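Dear colleagues,

As part of the handover before I leave the project, I'm documenting each prediction I ran so the next person doesn't have to rerun anything. This entry is a single chain, and its sequence is reproduced below.
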Amino acid sequence: MTEDSRNFFTGALIATGGLMVALCGTCTAAFAGPALWALATHKNDYMAPVVIMFAAVLGGIPTLIGALVLRSGLKRHRAGVTPPST
């Protein structure tokens, strides 16, 4: 594997993981946040746990995978994958 392809792969890991965390995490927070607020204020108590459970499963798992991909890319970047000199 050449240095250029390693740099590209590292950048792709960082970008993909960052986007997954940002987009999936925001969507999860957008659904779980109001449900947590409903639990705190005792409004709609019967539906809030279901919404939190679905948000955690459907949004939390991709967010976790994205965080792992991002961490892997950052670890590769810190391990010495440097851009080529001109």
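The chain has one domain: 3-78. The chain has a mean pLDDT of 88.

All the best with the project,
I.
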